[in-house]
Amino acid sequence: MLSALLQHWLPKPRVADSRPRLLCHRQCGRGVTEGNRPTARSHPIARTIPAGHRTDGHKNNKPPKYDNRNMDSHDFSFEGLRVYKSIRQLVKDVYVLVNKLPAVENFALGSQIRRAVVSVKANIAEGSGRNHPKDKAHFIDMAYGSLLETYSELETAADLGYITEEDVKNIKPQIIDIGKMLSGLRTSILSHDN
After folding, report:
1. 80-100 as b/e, with b when 16 or more CB fall inside 10 Å?
2. CA distances from 125 to 13, 80, 129, 133, 178 (A)
3. In this structure, which CATH number among 3.90.245.10, 1.20.1440.60, 3.40.50.80, 2.60.120.10 belongs to the domain 76-191?
């Protein structure tokens, strides 16, 4: 009930349109609607507003610009980390093991294992984009949790006979090594906070 009242009384935010449009100058007084849009020929006072520009009176009429220096060089901070490079290899190795699972497990256990191992890598990348050391450390914690989840699910696949115990034994040192690197990275990040 309260939210319905607030929606009724609070002004609705104006969102920039994604396509160019024509608007009347204020002195015209004609309303511009979706169905009745003036053109430059039919409406002498209309002016064209470029796509993405705001029309709600703010001084900054341009859409925000993002710093894309890193985008051009493909040199993100996480790409140089030894742990990130190790995780990339782990993802490949786990995908090879998951391909051994039967088709019936493609959308169950197989999907869960794939999501868990990719989450390790994604959390490292996402955490590197955070500014505060505690935020970065939080994403390292989530990456560690996903790493353990990956190992646990690989053990489940071995218990069910989908992969061999030898497969799990061969990948375990890699997982332990990555866990140690994640722990060291977390400690390093938090030591810079003090």
Report:
1. ebebbebbeebbeebeebbee
2. 33, 11, 7, 14, 15
3. 1.20.1440.60
Do 93 and 171 contact (CB within 8 A), yes or no? yes
- Tokens (6 digits) for 100: 């051994």
CA distances from 159 to 25, 104, 150, 169 (A): 73, 16, 14, 13
User: How far is it, in rounded angstroms, from Cα 37 to Cα 133?
Assistant: 51
Q: List for the chain the helix, strand, coil content (%; round to 5).
A: 55, 5, 40
Give the residue extent of every domain in the chain. 15-65, 76-191
Q: Which residues pair with 174 in a beta bridge?
A: none
Residue with the two structure tokens 């722990």: 183
**CA distance linking residue 90 with residue 168, whole number of Å:** 12
With residue 48 as reference, give the H or E element that holds it: strand 47-49
Q: What is the pLDDT of residue 27?
A: 47
Q: How many CA atoms lie within 13 A of 158 on its CB side?
A: 17
pLDDT in tens, 27-81: 444 555 445 555 555 555 555 555 555 555 545 555 545 455 545 556 788 888 9
